[in-house]
Amino acid sequence: MMETLNTTLFLLINATPASPDWLIRLAVFIARDMISIVPLLAVALWLWGPRQQISTQRHLVIKLTMAMAVSLAVSWGLGLAFPHPRPFAEGIGYQWLHHSADDSFPSDHGTVIFTFAIAFLFWHRVWSGIFMLILGCAIAWSRVYLGIHWPMDMVGGFLVGLLACLSSQILWPGPGIKLFRIVQRLYRLCFSALINKGWVRD
Question: 133 with 139: CB under 8 angstroms?
Fold first, then answer.
């Protein structure tokens, strides 16, 4: 029953030769390039920001890093335990973006962007978390639309991201704070010249 639902939803979303060319190009951009916001925003949050908020921002970055490590490890384990071919590998639908025919569940892109979005929802601000969730849904839609993922791959990525953020919150009071202090010391050592020039925050 779940496979039938998965296939039905996929065929409803997947682009066809009759789909607008501009929409396919937009989906390719979203599917391939929008994920880059994750490392760029994490670096920006660590390096810059209002002085009274920089510590909170850096806590977010470390919590996010811990959650990302958990989510990718869980995603890898689920991929081994429950291998599932991609739609084009089964000859279903239309493929509009080149991708290797490796296992699809859960989606790595979905796991990363939903972990990022849920982290913002938990530890930053509600509006930023909602914005990231919308971005995550756009990336999820685009990869199904282009025929390289099933809808359930994205649902799996969301659930893994939620589990990872909960795990990070549980780990934060002990190993999380210790990791933050270590990274903070290393940062101040390696970036001392830039800090002294005022180009990045202490």
Answer: no
For 173-198, the pLDDT digits (tens) are 999 999 999 999 999 999 999 999 99
Model-wide pTM > 0.90: yes
Q: How many residues does the chain have?
A: 202
Query: In Å, how far are 91, 92, 127, 129, 147 from 24, measured between CA atoms?
Result: 20, 18, 29, 27, 11
Domains, the chain:
37-197 (1.20.144.10)
The residue type of 190 is C
Q: Specify the DSSP class assigned to residue 36.
A: G
Q: How far is residue 101 CA from its own chain's centroid?
A: 21
Do 169 and 62 form a contact (C-beta atoms < 8 A)? no
Cβ atoms of residues 156 and 56 within 8 Å:
no
Question: Per-residue DSSP letters for 49-77?
Answer: S-TTTHHHHHHHHHHHHHHHHHHHHHHHH
Distance CA 143, CA 13 (A): 10
What is the distance between the alpha carbons of residues 155 and 114, in angstroms, rounded to a whole number?
Answer: 10
Tell me whether the omega of the peptide bond preceding residue 106 falls within 30 degrees of 0, making it cis.
Answer: yes
Q: How confident is the model at residue 2 (pLDDT cuts 50, 70, 90)?
A: confident
Place of tokens 């490890």: 73
Q: Give ∠ CA 23-98-133 in degrees, rounded to 5.
A: 55
As a whole number of angstroms, the distance between CA 81 and CA 67 comes to 21
